[in-house]
From TrEMBL:
Its cofactor is FMNH2. This is Chorismate synthase. Keywords: Amino-acid biosynthesis, Aromatic amino acid biosynthesis, FAD, Flavoprotein, FMN, Lyase, NADP. NADP(+) binds at residues 39, 45. Reduced FMN (FMNH(2)). Residues 95-114 are annotated as: Disordered. Its EC number is 4.2.3.5. Homotetramer. It comes from Dehalobacterium formicoaceticum. It comes from the Bacteria. It catalyses: 5-O-(1-carboxyvinyl)-3-phosphoshikimate = chorismate + phosphate. HAMAP family: Chorismate_synth. InterPro entries: Chorismate_synth (IPR000453), Chorismate_synth_AroC_sf (IPR035904), Chorismate_synthase_CS (IPR020541). PANTHER family: CHORISMATE SYNTHASE. The lineage of its organism: Bacteria, Bacillati, Bacillota, Clostridia, Eubacteriales.
Amino acid sequence: MRFLTAGESHGPMLTAIIEGFPANLPLTADFINQELARRQMGYGRGGRMQIEQDQVEILSGVRNGLTMGSPITLQIKNRDWVNWAEVMSPAPGADMTTKKITRPRPGHADLTGSIKYDQGDMRNILERSSARETASRVAVGAVAKALLKEMDIMVFGRVVAIGGIKDTNPLPGIPWEELFSQVENSPVRCFDEQVSENILRMIDQAKKEGDTLGGVFEIIITKVPAGLGSHVHWERKIDGRLAGALMSIQGIKGVEVGLGIQSADQPGSKVHDEIGYEENNGFFRYSNHAGGIEGGMSNGEPIVIRAAMKPIPTLMKPLNTVDRATKEKLTAQVERSDVCAVPAACVVGEAVAAWEIARSLQEKFGGDTLEEMKERVKKYRIYLRQV
Ligand code: EPS
């Protein structure tokens, strides 16, 4: 299973092609659109989200609401394109001056990208490095989620910190659905209402000061059978794959699994999860410090991974920089942008994690059709309860 995305932030559209997905999976544009809408929510977004109302068009691979096994093409139109048609035109004669960028933003792909690809106009870099691209990945992740749903696997994210304001409470011992629905109702995807409110104030303050905020989100994946991924070779380790997927989201600077960095501070007796056995239910762990992954494999406990996003590099009160062409010391270019996109990144985190789980599931169980895959997963789950 693989996918490619294409498209510029202010180009006509974003496109994704998924290849290797099983046939007969129920899939509708409505289901994908719900995920796209979730990504667009979140307090702290800028003017662009008022313009876009992301809607997917399924252009191939699906017929009569079911996948056919052939490549699936997804397309999301950029509504903002009408305002950029001359600037972003692929034809010779495009307007190359009105929106030209030569003053790179510290922390952005602008400068290094423009040197690497030798582009005098850094717009040619930011158009693709923009987190607008994540809309495509959320659409792809929605397809993966549709497959996981068939196996009863749920992927969900919550924000645990923004701008240094943290929800330090452990995961509340309530049913997942309850936790998820409370998170879904928070404008910053935060479970704790008081923390949510403090974060809202913090975002308002940052906006007033022309600044931006980063934060941390947590992805929880439930009912993953033990044994996805493998210890036998580096690129098959599921923690490596999930971490790589999360790190590939724009702005992410750190990822941890379970206790993560903290596990380095404590003795083994406090870190490792003791093993239990229940007849007819199989092996389990008494705690989940490992975040559901040991030896590069899922161990049957919920997978819990966190990712840290840096503050967005486009500051309304810009930092110092050097002009690409004149080498003059100036302040960075100011573009319309967001103050905080951590809640949106959290939804993107769900999508990329869902993809990696779906991919690992398909590697273990194979199957050209949904029925084959489901049957094999069902049998394996019986084995896990009896082993
Ligand atoms: C982004 C800058 C802003 C964001 C954009 C990511 O876009 P614009 O320059 O058009 O105002 O809104 O995010 C999206 C468009 C999106 O769909 O998430 C950037 O520079 O990364």
